[in-house]
Amino acid sequence: MRNGPFFVNDTLVFKYEMPADNSTRPHSVYQLPDLRSFLRCDVSKGKMLANWTDGGGEGFEFVMDKWQPYFFACGEANGIHCNMGKMKFFVIPFLRRWNF
């Protein structure tokens, strides 16, 4: 597992287990449009990238193909995991020397 630094055109891999029973909530991956949505865990303005089944096995891949901030959150149950502070993060990829 690589924790950074991350660069433009790097691939993020999201892996998460499907719920085994009704006692746990599923996960999903939303890309949020801006810092405000990220801080408020407002997934209503986000784009779903992966549902609760996409994170199993090899996981879901996302390529950061632009030099910009990327905001991600779990969007299940209107962002409950995000609101708990457990499943949200952002990445600002660096430019490689050859991008200049």
Labels describing this entry:
single chain; 100 residues; alpha+beta; two-stranded antiparallel sheet; 6 strands; globular
Give the SSE map.
Elements: E1 11-14, E2 29-32, H1 35-40, E3 47-50, E4 60-63, E5 70-73, H2 76-83, E6 88-91
Describe the structure.
The chain contains two helices and six strands; from the N terminus they run ββαβββαβ. The mean pLDDT is 81. It is globular. The strands form two sheets. The protein has a four-stranded antiparallel sheet. It has a two-stranded antiparallel sheet with strand order 1-4. It has helices spanning 35-40, 76-83, and strands at 11-14, 29-32, 47-50, 60-63, 70-73, 88-91. The protein is α+β, with helices and mostly antiparallel strands. The relative contact order is 0.29.
